[in-house]
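Side project, low priority. Logging it here so it doesn't get lost.
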Amino acid sequence: MPCTTILVGKEATHDGSTIIARNDDGAFEAKRLLTHPAREGASTYKTVISHLTVAPPEKALRYTDCPNVSKANGVWPACGINEANVAMTATETITSNARVVGADPYVRYQGKKGRGTKEVPGGIGEEDLVTLVLPYIRSAREGVLRTGALLEEYGTYEPNGMAFADADEIWWLETIGGHHWIARRVPDDRVVVMPNQFGLDHFDFADAYGEQKENLCSKDLREFVEKYRLALDTGAEFNPRLAFGSHSDADHIYNTPPRLVHGPVFPAPHL
């Protein structure tokens, strides 16, 4: 089975808790469970894959993560929970399409090409996300906003889906091209099953640029869609999956469309 995320709102569980979970396919690397102490003071973080140096906030919360045993490709912490009881999972590889990537290319590392040239760092990716986000957030919403700010500043070299949960809310974020992103709050009475595919199929721009109760996105997402004519909808509602997702036959073999349900029952309406 490919990486699959399950998100369960607090009204869809027996005890009122929120649940986020994900399996990990990849190359089936051995994992560890680590606890990192709280930290105060300046620090730097350097990625292995993209050779990028980031200066995180000076105050970090205590948190757990599940990194690879081998550090050949970096930390790859996958998931964790911090002392504020906020959970995060961040290595759900998703999909995109050539129109999106052409409009907002991935930020990939460029090595030296000869004497007199310099390497150009890439963006952030699955190797880095939990380490750069989880120790610095106190709610699921803060997780979305911090991740979004990092994406807008540094970019990413791959498409990713990420889940954030606290005692009351679950948020799902998906990257769009190199610097853009979109996120929705999972309704409390719903269950989401999300595969390796861009999944959001409904988005409320009025809320995202207004009260932001259930929808968040990069600051210029609406203008980005309009400028590059990414909306492929034939109806009145904007469908992010049509605009930003993949459209290949492989989608129907490797993945199935994600769905949201009222309680832990399938099938269901959309997300």
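Brief comment: The CA atoms of residues 19 and 40 lie 30 Å apart.
Revisit when time allows.
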